[in-house]
Amino acid sequence: MPRSILFVTLDSCRYDAFVEARAPNLKSLAPLCRAQSPSHFTYGSHSAFFMGFTPGDASRREPYVNPKYGKIFRMEGGGHPGAEKPHVTLSGHNIIDGLKNSGYRAIGTGAVNWFNPERPTGRVLSADFDAFAFAAGPKLQAQLEWIDATLAQVPAGTPSFVFLNIAETHVPYYYKDAPWDPAYNPCVAFGEQNDAAECRRRQVACVEWCDKILEPLLERFEKDSVIVCSDHGDCWGEDGLWEHGVSHEKTLEVPLLIRLSTDG
Ligand SMILES: [Zn+2]
User: How far is the CA of 109 from the centre of ligand 1 (A)?
Assistant: First the structure.
């Protein structure tokens, strides 16, 4: 039977903030890779991920961490085949559709507005899942409860593809009951009140909080494939830029962890 797949995106999480964070559950998945994302904003990156173009390090001649060399998800007819065999080859109009065609139950939850099915723009990324929950974030605990309840309805023997987009790491960087005021956002494009040190302190703390909360989900998928990355980073004042949605080294640089399991 194919192994289930968990794909987590820590929205906007910078590589350096992830490195700094005490995140033993996530960091024990696989060696941490400093990767470049295919885009600098949520929709661009996820639409590329869902077509098999995951973040990568182009300098490494090895599959998966370099998707040009070998893809985790290779869509039939979708771009360069790579130097090495993909982890899986899929038929369909994206990896969600392709995994469904391969017998997976596709379950997704997103917390930023590009995943809001109430909006025409949010329908594009969410439409193909068998079940999708939009949690106007940050609401990771509610998303995890929904995943548990939804997985409980998947028949035994059916592999699942679970996608989770997390908003705690997105501006204003906040988790439930965090000891700071989310009304103050230290990272506003063209803002006058920005504070790079506060951005870093908050985002690192958000990663640490998410890491704790994610432990049961990661345990549930301990024999399965798990991919964790950011969709993009944020600028914290580099070159006078703040937040994301602009092409810059710091918006493209993301953490990437890949642990792939083969069928069994
Ligand atoms: Zn994003």
Answer: 14
Ligand 1 centroid from CA 189, angstroms: 15
Distance 27 CA to ligand 1 centre (A): 21
What is the tens place of the pLDDT at every residue in 204-250? 999 999 999 999 999 999 999 999 999 999 999 999 999 999 999 99
Print the SS3 string covering the chain: CCCCEEEEEECCCCHHHHHHCCCHHHHCCCCCEEEECCCCCHHHHHHHHCCCCCCECCCCCCCCCCCCCCCCEEECCCCCCCCCCCCEEECCCCHHHHHHHCCCEEEEEECCHHHCCCCHHHHHHHCCCCEEEECCCCCHHHHHHHHHHHHCCCCCCCCEEEEEEECCCCCCCCCCCCCCCCCCCCCCCCCCCCCHHHHHHHHHHHHHHHHHHCHHHHHHCCCCEEEEECCCCCEECHHHCEECCCCCHHHHEEEEEEECCCCC
pTM over 0.85: yes
pLDDT single digits (tens) 128-187? 999 999 999 899 999 999 999 999 999 999 999 999 999 999 999 999 999 999 999 999
State in Å: Cα 10 to ligand 1 middle.
8
Q: How far is the CA of 188 from the centre of ligand 1 (A)?
A: 15
Distance 76 CA to ligand 1 centre (A): 27
Distance 62 CA to ligand 1 centre (A): 26
Cis peptide leading into residue 172 (ω within 30°):
yes
